[in-house]
Amino acid sequence: MTKTRRTRSDSAKAAVQAHQNAAQGPIEPPSYVTLPDACKPFWDAIVTSRARDTWTESDLVTAANMARVQQALQTAEIGGDEHAKLTRLALALARSLSVHVTATAGRAANLVNAATAEREARQDDGDELIPRLRAV
């Protein structure tokens, strides 16, 4: 049995695919999935957190459920136990879809290093020969 290999993420082919994916914008839900308009911002955030060409039909159904749960958490006036249940469900769906922080941003140690570097860059007045981006 021949196994199909995925393209290396650091290849030129992967870079071209990434640009093509980004140019297409967020994936739309499958035609058989009803997604209320209020859930659309959550849907867009979910489906753009992973490479477009890695989504399956089944993943998209799960992503729609996650968008509904996140929208419910945002707007529902629910308390303690019900809120905790929805939060746990949202986290489980994120893990199922590999759109949780470790899958999308990396290990916690790497996040600390990135945050530290960004914080230091904000505080660095720099060298007059090296231009810095500044908020206007």
The end-to-end span amounts to 58 Å
β-sheet strand percentage: under 5%
Largest sheet: none
The topology string of helices and strands comes to: HHHHHH
Radius of gyration: 19 Å
What's the number of helices? 6
Structural class: mainly alpha
The number of distinct structural domains comes to 1
Low-confidence stretches: none
The total count of strands amounts to 0
Measured as a percent range, the helix fraction is 55-70%
Mean of all residue-level pLDDT scores = 78
Large-scale geometry: extended
What does this structure look like?
There is one protein chain. With 136 residues, the protein is an all-alpha fold. The protein has one domain. It has six helices and no strands. The protein has helices at 12-23, 40-47, 57-75, 80-97, 101-105, 108-123. α2 crosses α3 (57-75) and α3 packs antiparallel against α4. The protein is extended and about 55 Å long. The N and C termini lie far apart (58 Å).
Question: What is the topology?
Answer:
Elements: H1 12-23, H2 40-47, H3 57-75, H4 80-97, H5 101-105, H6 108-123
Helix pairs in contact: 2-3, 3-4
Concise summary:
The chain is mainly alpha-helical and 136 residues long.
Overview features:
136 residues; mainly alpha; 0% strand
